[in-house]
């Protein structure tokens, strides 16, 4: 078991705001989370929503979709400034609800089609690609040193998610540019100049996706694009604009950033503690899944999703009128000391670790969770088998990306 170094500093009631893009929350959001859990849900002026940080309150919201609607779960790109919206309209960029924004009864027919891309058979079918990609990337490492973010996790997950969706492998670099544009347009804290630059490129992305949709309509394959177009699990296919939005967001953004960050966060936890590293080397089949779940709990790669109240209610002692926006901070709930004792520790034997909220829960639990777990397992197995002497580079200090939605390392420098 390893213990995290407590954050230095004190948070007063006046500082109970949250901005994950700036210090100190960028480096350690748990400074805010720990302080916020001592209070009922409160409004963050920066984000314009009440922060839900306690595990019990998070469960209350997740388990009551009738009271807490998912309609605002992720922001709309057409909610940006008028000049940004004008650029999007000029490019004929479609926007529907994302599947995670749907409440019942609209949710189930869309979700069941989307689920088809991540079934057990689809996961098993992707395993050869995962193994081949991991070995090829390790073969290409510079002698004795690598950055496990840029040299490994990024291209590994890009290759896998492109194959799942049905993107041509040769288009990966361009698709990543467009994916980053989607994330930027979702980020209300990004400057308008960044929104404009991203919006300019989204028209090209729209035309690219439509060409793929048209091709799959005529010639379906075993990929997510074909599922969305032709239907699955007894439900009909989706309109083209809905397919575009699912592919842009729920599939490509969520399927890339979270898995990339989970791979590198888990490797960092393994390499940072010699006792964990030795357990993984001694029994990788048993220990890697344990390490994965514990790090998903401790360092959830996705911060959380928005909700809005449909009626007057009370949550954790705070009265919330109908129409109140909430941000569910899963990373805070995963370190709630009332549920996970010694929450900042990496404990490979934690008995209730699978109760974490890293993949959400209930109606909107992440459909790609089985695929993500397989990717993390394969990526770590190959690293530990091929490079058992690997260690953190001398002087390495973790630096976390400035991201509205995601929590991950900018780099992970290792030597062997």
UniProtKB/TrEMBL annotation:
User: According to the lineage, what is the superkingdom?
Assistant: Bacteria
List keywords of the entry alphabetically: Heme, Iron, Metal-binding, Monooxygenase, Oxidoreductase
Q: Which GO terms describe its molecular function?
A: heme binding; iron ion binding; monooxygenase activity; oxidoreductase activity, acting on paired donors, with incorporation or reduction of molecular oxygen
What InterPro entries does the annotation carry?
Cyt_P450, Cyt_P450_B, Cyt_P450_CS, Cyt_P450_sf
Question: Per its UniProt record, what Pfam families does this chain match?
Answer: p450
State the PANTHER family in the record. P450, PUTATIVE (EUROFUNG)-RELATED (PTHR46696)
Q: Which family does it belong to?
A: Belongs to the cytochrome P450 family.
Q: What is this protein called?
A: Cytochrome P450
Native source species = Pseudonocardia hydrocarbonoxydans
């Amino acid at each position: 078991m390893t213990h995290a170094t407590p954050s230095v500093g004190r948070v007063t009631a006046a500082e109970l705001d949250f901005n994950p893009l700036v210090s100190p929350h960028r480096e350690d959001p748990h400074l805010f989370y720990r302080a916020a859990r001592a209070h009922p849900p409160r409004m963050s002026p920066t984000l314009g929503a009440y922060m839900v940080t306690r595990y019990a309150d998070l469960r209350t919201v997740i388990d009551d979709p009738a009271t807490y609607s998912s309609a605002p779960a992720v922001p709309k790109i057409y909610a940006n400034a008028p000049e940004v919206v004008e650029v999007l309209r000029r490019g004929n960029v479609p926007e529907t609800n994302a599947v995670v924004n749907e409440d019942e009864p609209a949710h189930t027919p869309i979700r069941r089609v989307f689920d088809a891309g991540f079934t057990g058979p689809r996961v098993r079918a992707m395993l050869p690609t995962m193994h081949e990609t991991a070995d090829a990337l390790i073969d290409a490492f510079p002698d004795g040193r690598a950055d496990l973010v840029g040299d490994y996790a990024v291209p590994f997950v890009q290759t896998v998610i492109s194959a799942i969706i049905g993107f041509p492998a040769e288009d990966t670099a361009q698709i990543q540019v467009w994916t980053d544009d989607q994330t930027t347009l979702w980020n209300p804290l990004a400057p308008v100049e960044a929104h404009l630059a991203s919006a300019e490129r989204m028209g090209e992305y729209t035309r690219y996706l439509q060409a793929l949709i048209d091709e799959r309509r005529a010639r379906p394959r075993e990929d997510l694009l074909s599922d969305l177009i032709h239907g699955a699990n007894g439900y009909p296919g989706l309109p083209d604009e809905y397919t575009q939005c699912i592919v842009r967001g729920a599939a490509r953004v969520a399927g890339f950033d979270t898995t990339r960050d989970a791979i590198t966060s888990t490797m960092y936890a393994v390499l940072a503690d010699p006792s964990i590293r030795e357990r993984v080397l001694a029994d990788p089949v048993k220990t890697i899944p344990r390490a994965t779940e514990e790090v998903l709990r401790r360092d959830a790669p996705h911060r959380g999703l928005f909700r809005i109240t449909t009626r007057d209610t009370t949550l954790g002692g705070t009265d919330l009128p109908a129409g109140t926006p909430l941000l569910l901070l899963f990373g805070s709930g995963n370190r709630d000391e009332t549920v996970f004792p010694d929450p900042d520790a990496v404990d490979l034997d934690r008995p209730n670790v699978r109760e974490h909220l890293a993949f959400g829960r209930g109606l909107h639990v992440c459909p790609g969770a089985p695929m993500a777990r397989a990717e993390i397992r394969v990526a770590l197995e190959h690293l530990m088998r091929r490079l058992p002497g690997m260690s953190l580079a001398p002087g390495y200090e973790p630096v976390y990306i400035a991201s509205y939605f995601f929590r991950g390392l900018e780099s992970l420098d290792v030597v062997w």
